[in-house]
Each structure stands twice: as structure tokens, then as C-alpha cells.
Amino acid sequence: MHPDLVPLAFLLGTWEGRGEGGYPTIEPFSYLEVVTFSHVGKPFLAYQQRTRHPQTEVPMHAETGYWRPVGERGLEVLLAHPTGVVEVYEGTVERTRIEIRTTSVTCTRTAKDVRALTRSIEVEGDTLRYDLAMAAVGQPLTHHLHAELHRR
Amino acid sequence: MHPDLVPLAFLLGTWEGRGEGGYPTIEPFSYLEVVTFSHVGKPFLAYQQRTRHPQTEVPMHAETGYWRPVGERGLEVLLAHPTGVVEVYEGTVERTRIEIRTTSVTCTRTAKDVRALTRSIEVEGDTLRYDLAMAAVGQPLTHHLHAELHRR
Which pLDDT value is given to residue A111? Predict the structure, then answer.
């Protein structure tokens, strides 16, 4: 592993679990999720995420990108979404807790209007919990997703 | 396969081969490349790309994202790079030829300054050739990469 990745090593692996979503414009929903953080010896983590319906197992959301440590406690995250959105985040790593916030969200002309997101991630041993808030489709920054995942 | 994906179905699969790169600010270089286009039944292709050194096999570049057909001939592409860059492209699909151009490039504060890219892709049977031009680090849009890949 590249030495710059040490502060993010607690994320490595494949994580599986269940999440709950809500937003003022939609009905509450649940999902099953698989997240993988991997590395190839360079100073970044490759990230892949997929969710599926808890009963039908039909694919729901997906996202992919890279997590870049910056110094001892800094973090940059680059994400692409099949919904027509790319996001750039900056934030901090404190032991096994991550807080990131978008510095840029860009949507294609056919995408829903997403303006800003925040993500909090905390890992305790082999359990990862995250919360995501989103400002989109005219709503202010509002809690959208919470999930608890377990390292495979 | 989702019916909206039919115009992009010629991309599906795993492609391997060799490329050549150049730019006014660097020495020419060669690379080995693996590209995968896959789908999960939804109206987009998931895309993963990795290159490695032709002699040492050490990982070089990587990129990941999604390709979204828009109508019969339109295309939107969302890409994230571990170099700290996200790109949004729009373009066209004519039979098995794709032309896309960035509508947005966003870099983190620690990334090299990338301003714009164009990509041309042509598939003939199981051969895929692409060219990529880039405006970056103060240079105008300049040819950067050419590769020929073969479907596995």
C-alpha cells in the first residue's frame, strides 16, 4: 500500500448492508448496498457502490470514483453517477471518521438538478455507518440516506 | 438489455490492447489498457478503464464512470479520475462511431489543470480505436492518446 493511504486504510475492503432513504419529494425507501474500496499501490482508493431493491434485488443506484488523501487529515473525493451527475468533495479524516462536502456538482442537461451534498462516514471495527444529505430539485440541504454496512 | 442501450450495444464487453501517448509537456509513452463496458439492465453503460506500463505492468492511469444514451444519436458521459478530475461530455453516436466533447471539467485544488477534452471512438467488429485530445497545463486542445483495443 502506498504510504499516503495509511489514514484511509480503515476503508479498504467490501462492505455490505442495508440503508434507508427519504426526501421531501419522494416516499421513504430501503435498499441493500455493496461498497468496495480497493487500491493498486498508488495514493488513492478506487470506490464502487451499488444498491438494489431489498425484495426484488433489482439494481437501484450506483456510483463510482476515487478517494484521494491530502496530507495527514485532508481528503478529496471524485464521483460519477449514472443519473448524469459528477461530484467533487473536500473534507477531513479524523481517525475513522470522515466528513466531506461538495465543492462542485455538475449535472448533464437531462439530469435532475443536484446542487450540493454532505457525507459523514464512521467506521468502528468492521461496521461502517454513513449519512448523506442533499440539496436537489429545489430543496435545501436535507438528510437523504443512512446505511449500516459490514465488512465481508 | 434496456432498449435505450441498443445504439451503444457495440461497446459492450472487455477490450484490451496498447496505446501511445504524447503531449507538448512530456516525453512520448506507451501503455497497455483494459476497458470494460457493462450494464445491469438500466439505460446506461458502466465504464472502467485501467492502463499499465508495457514492460513493468505497473498501474498507470485509471478512469471510471457511466455512458448515457440520449435519444437515438445523443450521448452523455460522466467520468471520474484518480488524478482529481471529473468530466462531463456530450456528443453523438453514428452507427459505431462516437464523438464526444467535454461540457464541463472540474479539478480539485491539488490536481493538474485540465480544461477540455475530445474523444473519438470507432468500433469495427471486435476492434476499438480511440483518439483523445486534451487542453491542459496551459496547452491548447492537442492530441494526447491513441489506442487500438480488441474485444476479449
Answer: 96
**Would strands B26-38 and B13-23 be described as parallel, antiparallel, or unpaired?**
antiparallel
By Cβ distance, the residue of A82, A86, A103 closest to B88 is A86
- The mean pLDDT of chain B is 97
Exposed/middle/buried for B4, CB within 10 Å: 0-12, 13-18, 19+?
middle
Residues of B in contact with A91 (CB under 8 A): none
pLDDT range class, residue B72, cuts 50, 70, 90: confident
User: Residue A107: what pLDDT?
Assistant: 97
pLDDT tens by residue, A67-83: 999 998 999 999 999 99
ipTM: 0.97
Partner-chain residue, chosen from B59, B76, B110, that has the shortest CB–CB distance to A84: B76
Q: Hey, CA dihedral for A150, A135, A8, B56, is it positive or negative?
A: positive
- In Å, how far is A67's CA from the nearest CA of chain B? 7
In this complex, the residue of B76, B79, B84 whose CB is nearest that of residue A108 is B76
Q: B133-144 burial by CB neighbour count: b if 16+ within 10 A, else e?
A: bbbbeeeeeeeb
C-alpha grid cell, residue B38: 457493462
CATH superfamily, region A3-151: Calycin beta-barrel core domain (2.40.128.20)
**Structure-block grid coordinates of residue B11:** 461497446
Threshold 0.90, pTM exceeds? yes
**pLDDT over threshold 90, residue B139:** yes
- Which of A2, A49, A66, A101 should be substituted to probe chain B, the one whose Cβ sees the most B Cβ atoms within 10 Å? A66
Contact state of A106 with B88 under an 8 Å Cβ cutoff: yes
Cβ distance A86 to B106 less than 8 Å, yes or no, reads yes
**pLDDT for position A151:** 98
Note which residues in 92-151 of chain A have CB less than 8 A from chain B. Answer: 103-104, 106, 108-110
